[in-house]
Amino acid sequence: MAIREMNTQEALDIPQQRTANEPQDFPEPAPLASHGPARIIAMVNQKGGVGKTTSSINLGAALAAYGRKMLLVDFDPQGALSVGLGLNPYELDISIYNLLMNPRLDPHEVIVETEFDNIDILPANIDLSAAEVQLVGEVAREQVLARALSKVADEYDVILIDCQPSLGLLTVNALTAAHGVVIPLETEFFALRGVALLVETIEKVQDRLNPSLEVDGILATMFDSRTLHSKEVMSRVTEAFGDKVFETVINRTVKFPDASVAAEPITSFAPKHAGSEAYRRLARELIARGGAP
């Protein structure tokens, strides 16, 4: 896929719903009469730095603000999701690693209630890096996470899994447990190159382990409307994946790292910022598409 320079007219001809600051809006969802069973969504991309953790935190917070009871699963040994919600991974006595290694462990002993309404977390730390090796010899090793989450799925509306930047056994576990996949994709050419491999992995999991798995959508992140490069990549993504691409686009802004340092979602850190509205819009779009209750 060769990237060439666009002239000004070509840039203007790119569909505006993909590049404008205010794409199509979606209706505010109705409140839920009851909670559960959860729809499980894996946030997956084997490339690092594309906004998986940022999107997990902020999409989770936006859904929670619409009354959805959320469980966020930190499935990355770096523990960035845990840090982003105010936990210190080095101080954890018990984490999702223990849940994977001990099938008799009650998930409620690991789940932490955060200070944010409707958001609980299954935290992780560096211990999780050992799980990939230790699970290799286990029977049905791809289904360990699914078995653990099944014990609490009825208590939540959405379970959102923040995966590590890898297509290894942990990510396969997340895909096997999930009903849907959201793929954050940085609007940069090299980010496009790994999507074919990711889609191939998803198709293998669908074929062999989880026939009900579906791609909920591809989320364009770190979009910069000032550059022709971002616009052309956005155009190529839309051409390749059509309506699988979310209408909502997440623009690049320094507010996201600022919110991460403050250990809170941007929706509470800067509720009136455009980034907050983008994730609220994404939550509405996901619900409208049927990707969340």
TrEMBL record:
Extract the CDD domains matched here: ParAB_family
Query: What positions does the domain AAA occupy?
Result: 39-215
Query: Which InterPro entries does UniProt cross-reference here?
Result: AAA_dom, DNA_Partitioning_ATPase, P-loop_NTPase
The ranges of region (Disordered) come to 1-32
Cross-referenced Gene3D superfamilies, in alphabetical order? P-loop containing nucleotide triphosphate hydrolases
> Biased composition, Polar residues: where in the chain?
1-22
- Which Pfam families does the UniProt entry name for this protein? AAA_31 (PF13614)
Instruction: State the name under which the record lists this protein.
Output: AAA family ATPase
The species this protein was found in: Brevibacterium permense
